[in-house]
Amino acid sequence: MIQQNPVLRMCISCRKTYDRKDLLKITKDHKQGIILQKGMGRSAYICKSKKCYSDSKIKKKLQKALKTFLEPEFVEIFEKEITSYNNYPH
């Protein structure tokens, strides 16, 4: 049986490489807009560390990675989602 290598992605905040399953995925879909944890399109990944998701420049980094403007409503939803995401056991 062929062993699969883990799919590695880089956190846009700390620039460290992690397994894709351990990161929060933010995707810009051309039909649905910006969605979390699913979808195909331009994506950015953020790791679980509090330092990364509470970075003061995270909004700017997301805008640059997704090549789009983020609405203030999305930023509020993102902050709620990331706190609930980190409350789950890892």
TrEMBL record:
It comes from Prochlorococcus marinus (strain MIT 9301). InterPro entries: YlxR, YlxR-like_sf, YlxR_dom. Residues 9-78 form the YlxR domain. It holds the Pfam family YlxR. PANTHER family: BLL0784 PROTEIN, YLXR DOMAIN-CONTAINING PROTEIN. This is Predicted nucleic-acid-binding protein implicated in transcription termination.
